[in-house]
Amino acid sequence: MVSGVSVACFGWLGLEIIEPKTDGTWTHENIMQNVHKVLDQFEAKFPGCQLLLTYDNAPSHVARRKGALTSSNMNKSDGGAQPIITQMGWFYKPDPVSGLPVRVEQQMWYTGPNGTPIAKGALAVCRERGLAEAESLKRDELRALLASQPDFASVKPEIQKVVEERGHILLFGPKCHPECMHIEMCWAHVKQYCRQH
Q: Which of 7, 38, 80, 139 has the fewest CB atoms lying closer than 10 Å?
């Protein structure tokens, strides 16, 4: 498979062939390798300039860093096959004296008997936050409730964090409409040329 970024004033950056995984799609790791290459090339060619990147909402583009706050893979109960969330969560609760909101840091795992981490389930996380409505909710409802919490909702995809940390801008296109992205016209011309030649 071929990846690259089309820059209107220059041409292609990061153009490369990457072996896809066995089902024919690129992994998130492939995307991250390519975006680093694109940024390196752009910064070398245009020092001091800012790049505006646009990506569609493919799962490999919007994936979060390993260990980031995300409720999509959480179990209802503790432990099991769910991934360990290493990023600290946070929420606000009223101060018992002043009544003003106080930010509380929340660890997303317990330390097991042999020192290994055990992932907290969605219900335990909700209980610690005082979300009383969580008691009657099913797993997917608990995941949705946590996804709406400010700390979970503020976590950006890894590609966006990398681009912004390097001083550039990344915008995502509308969900379910990759045909709206500029790059699709470029690939259409490339495919047409390849078919004709």
A: 80
Tell me, letter by letter, the H, E, C secondary structure of 97-125. Answer: CCCCEEEEEECCEEECCCCCEEECCHHHH
Q: How far apart are CA 70 and CA 39, in angstroms?
A: 27
pLDDT above 90 for 108: yes
The closest alpha carbon to 42, from 5, 76, 72, belongs to 5
The pTM score is 0.70
Crossing angle of helices 28-45/158-165, nearest 10°? 20
Hey, which residues does 32 pair with through a beta bridge?
none
Long-range contacts of 131-136, Cβ-Cβ distance < 8 Å, separation of 24 or more: none
Dihedrals φ, ψ of 78, to 5°?
-70, 155
